[in-house]
Structure formats: C-alpha cells, structure tokens
Write a structure and sequence with these properties.
Elements lengths: L2 E5 L5 H10 L3 E6 L3 H5 L8 E3 L1 H16 L7 H13 L7 E5 L4 H9 L3 E5 L5 H15 L8 H13 L2 E4 L2 H9 L7 E3 L19 E6 L8 H11 L4 E6 L7 H6 L5 E4 L6 H5 L4 E4 L9 H7 L4 E4 L15 E4 L4 H13 L1 H18 L2 H16 L1
Helix pairs in contact: 1-15, 4-5, 9-13
Length: 381
Amino acid sequence: MRVTISVFGRFHAFNLACQLSRRGHLNRLITSYPAFEVEKYGVPKERIRALPHYEALKRGWGRLEKWLPMEGESSWINRGFEWSASRYIPEDTDIFVGWSGTAQRGLSRAKDVGAKAVLERGSSHIVFQRDILKKEEEKLGIDISLPDPKTVEKEKQEYEQADKIIVPSRFVENSFVEYGMEKSKLIRIPYGVNVKEFRKNKKKDDVFRVIYAGQMMLRKGVHYLLKAFYELDLPDAELWLIGSKREEIEPYFKKYEGSFKFLGHKPQSELYKYYSQGSVFAMCSLEEGLAMVQPQAMSCGLPLICTTNTGGEDLMSEKKEEGFVIPIRDTEKLKEKLLWCYENREACRVMGDAARRRVEKNFKWEDYGDRVVNAYSELLN
C-alpha cells in the first residue's frame, strides 16, 4: 500500500506521515513546510517533497494584511500550492490523501493515476461552520472571519470528488450527515497524542487553575470562558490563557481585564509544563473537529470540560469519568462544572488520572496509525 499525502501547512499530517512511514506505507509527503521541519516528526527526507516558498508567501501575505488596506484573501497562494502539489503525486500511488481547501487538483490527479482519493476534513462541514459562526457574529455584533463563498463552493466540490472523507469526531460526522452526506462516505478517526512529550509534572502549588490553550478567538468560545470565570470570582483561583490572539477577542479581554492571565504563544514542546500546573482544562468552542490540545491536556493529567462541538466527547469513556461535556454558549453550565471542580479538588484529580489513563490506552499516535492503516486497507479491498 503506497500512500501520498498533500498538505498546505502541518496540521496532523506529519504525524500521519510518520505512522505510515513506520509501517512501510508512505510513498510521498508533499508539504509547504521545509523538509528539515518535517524530519523532526520522524519522516524520512527521501519521502518529503517540500514547497516552502508557498509557506513563506502565505506568512508574508498575512503580515502585509495587518498593515496595508488590502481586500481579499490569500486564495491565490492556496491555488498555487494545490496545482504544484498535484504535479508531484507519483503514478504508483494507491491512496492519495489531501487536506480540505487545497485538495481539488490532487483528488483529480489521484483519479487519473487510478488511486483512491481521500479527503481529510479537520473541522465540521464547511456550510455548518459558516452558518454557526455567522449566527455568533449576528448575536455579538462583532465581525468574525467567515469562510468566503468561493471557499465554501470549492470545499463542497472536494467533498463530492473524494472517495472517502476522514473526519476526527462524531460531531463532525453528524455535521456532514446534516448537510446531506451519506454516512457510508465518512470515516471517523480521532487524532492522537505523544504521551512521552505530554507528560504530567508535579504541580508546584495549591492554586485552583483553569487552563485553556489555542487561539484567542470567538470561534473557540474564549469569551464564554472569560465570562464564566469572571462571574464565579473564586478565591485563590486563576485562569491561564495560552496561545496567539486575534483582534476580535480584544473587547472581551478589556471587559474582563484583571481576572485572567494571558501567557501568549508557547512552543508545543513546552506546553506540558503549563498543563501540569492546571487543575482542569476548558475548551468552549462553537465549532471544532477535534482540538488536539484536549488529548494533550488529558495526557498531562487534566480532566476536560468541553462543549459538544469540540470532539472532546470522543476522547471520553461512556460514563464520562474523564470530564464533562456541556452545550455551546451555556455559560451557566460552564460555571456549574468549574465550581464543582473547585469544590471537589480530590475528585477532580481522580478525573485527571482517569483522563491520563484513557489517552494512554486509546489515543496515542500509534493507536491513530493503526486505525488509519486499517481504514486505508478496507478502502483498497
């Protein structure tokens, strides 16, 4: 089985490539990242076709957009990568795997060489995503970055082209079914985590600490977390926010200033140190595929409070011994669960231990690799 991957960026593609390589199934990884970055994930250099000038263009364009009054998105860069990447798909490919948004040409090329065409979609159906964010935009009266009409139509075409669409959670699977996709076309495979990298360190103090990691943006529901923590006003408690910040969240940072600690972006290799100083991890997103910070935090011994739209529920056992799942936008329910964790510290630690065991047993990257290879084998057979 020879698998070729194409990805603009990184996502979990490098972990996928590593797992396929270890099993002798990686034909080629085509990426916008430089080869030396990919090699850090255990992908052999000879299997990498790097197109780093597209990554440089994308990041340069992003910086220019902040300072110059330019309209439109960098879709022309995406198209350039997509066309270039499709030219490097080997003819002996059995399965082509492309990331949604930049996979259309690759899916066509896969059909031309007789390969199975697989699409990776890390978030909900693009129309579901657009609609739920638009509703939040109208609710708050704040501009949110929405998928533009061309992107929506392009992704919908990719959905039709693909032989199979791989999604990371039941929430994403349901969003596709809701918008007319046959469930038989979907393959649900949750992501993994490196349990050696994300390990539990000893907590240095007795402060009750809520941790969130990810972008500070409305899609991630950070404004609901800020509101809940502020209104609880718990003595000897902290909220740590880790990640980069978007302008759309600034009004809420100003509104709740002084009630939280914004730590900014931290390297992934350092995140376990911050998780280990927490008491509980909170993920309040309106829409996610499966936020990978969730299994990371669980691997560091934190129980999880997540919404139904984060994929976090897929990481928990049926009895939810590892955390709580709440509805989106439900600040009162979020306060209830945070308060329970605050008032039941020992039970909270027990939940964190269960979360760690759950991840170690079911959601290592090796487990992910086994599930992927089984799915690919069934597709070929």
